[in-house]
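In this section we walk through a basic example: taking a raw amino acid sequence and producing a predicted 3D structure, encoded as discrete structure tokens. The instruction is simple. Fold the sequence below.
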Amino acid sequence: MLFCITANYTPAAIAAMRGGKTTSREEVVSKLVEEAGGRLVSCYGTIQEGPGALIILEIEDEVEISLAGIVETVSGTGALRDIRIQPLLTTAEVTESREKAGELHGHYTAPGQK
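The resulting token sequence is shown next.
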């Protein structure tokens, strides 16, 4: 399954990366994702909410454990903040989820509904 992870760098991380003396972040992320059993699909820098990163990765086995391990490893360094994880669905998967929602319709009531 594909996931999009976004995060913003902390001021300390930005200062540490100035001058180009650090290892490519894409290389570091790729090695981490591969070690967790996944594959880095793409890696981007972002500027909308401050300097940050957007990565798309693919993980097939033990998604919850591998993905949680990746996020905990990175967040534990203190270099990133506002980490967000978004599963990415193909249009076929979206169609399948809508069909499932149709099957489940009527099996749930919101608070206050009968």
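Looking at the output, two observations stand out. The mean pLDDT is 88. The radius of gyration is 18 Å. In the next section we compare this with other chains.
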